[in-house]
Fold:
Amino acid sequence: MQLYRVLLAVIYTTAHSAVASPFIEVGDMHLRHDMTVLADHGIISAPVTTWPISWNSVADDIRTATVKSDTPAVVKNALLRIKKRYRRQSTQGRLQLSGRFAAKTRDDTVPELRNFASAPREEAEAGVGVEWMGETAAFKLNATYVDDPEDGKDYRADGSYAGVVLGGWSYSVSTLDRWWGPGYEGSLILSSNARPVPALSLQRMSATPFESPWLSWLGPWQLKFFTGQLESDRHVPQAKLLGLRINFKPFDSLEVGLSRTAQWGGEGRPEDVDSFLDMLLGNDNAGENGVTPENQPGNQLAGWDLRWKPGKTLPLVVYMQRIGEDQAGIYPTANMYQFGAETWGSLGHYDYRLVVEYSDTSAYRGSNHDWNVAYNHGSVYADGYRFYSRSLGHTIDSDSAMTSIRYSLYGHNAISWQFVVNNGKINRDNEGQNAVSANAMDYTDLQVSRRQPLWRGDLNLGLAYIDVKDRQTGIANDEIQAMMHWHRRF
Structure:
């Protein structure tokens, strides 16, 4: 029970008065660019690799920020845009209505990979929403109808939440997408690839450092915890999904993230206190410490990520994520890896960002592959680390590798462009579970999308050319896919 006492002590000692604020949600690449530019230039002190982000954690920095004559244009532009967005989304005491419509083409022979910016999940979607924010409470309710859904769910409440703020902490129930880590094309532990898991959440509203001299070296920090429930139509119905992430900035140039998720319990599985504590302490590997498939408490992933800006003036960031599917003692092993680098600046009437990213979801023990381990758990949770058949982690799923290049342009008039190239090998060992492809597959796609104002809303249009080759059958397929998404606040 010591871990609970530590968590309660942290909540108590860091409590302060705070007001409710909406969340900065996953999916808006334009807003993510502005947030990271301001963080990398020292204007925003809060961590920026855990989404959704509370506006409360960045509000003071945004309100008090000023620019100097020698401030780079990319920083001035980002600050102007984010201040405008904050003013629009922080109005209290007024109902805000919204509507959205999305459509895309889809061919079942050509898989789709999702990233931070992906919008529609199905061929046609239509939704309405209402949100409200008060002094200590806020809610957002979305209702969406989808046509011909892959998971059979015609009506959804994805993107909804209701919460209250007590003592500087937000307590909420939500169906929001989560993105844990610095990557753009995927996160190894938790991304928006699958539909959001309904969950109860605890989140620190601010990022102010500890006052204690023993912990103040951590710098600005945040903590997020959730407990959710997976779908009933799976091998272990209604298994629980738990997640904890702490990220902190010991230096202005360095952000560190520590993440842990666990599948636990479910229909027919132990859910008593002993089982929970075994899961919490990592005593959950069958064949060790008296653990058998019958009493094995859970399936866990854990690891860390770094985002580092070398030099104060150089527009360059490098990042890394390492997530283990297993453990040796208390240390994660059977690791997956992600590496990336990004740079940014101004070009004419646009700000730009260039990102190069590599992800490998094979589980490595040292230099050796451990195939069919990542996102899989055959001894108990046979459906693996998935929700409605899509990976909760990286979009490429198990035993895959992908290199991505993303070039983005952000205009001062709310127009933006995204150009993306992905090249990868899916399910490289040609065995085991992989939601993208049951066989080994070569995958290449070229994407272009544009966002612009339309009818007092935002319109996103996209085209993608996807080329795949099944390495077992030799069959090749290619397709041009189109996407549109329009959203408006009334």
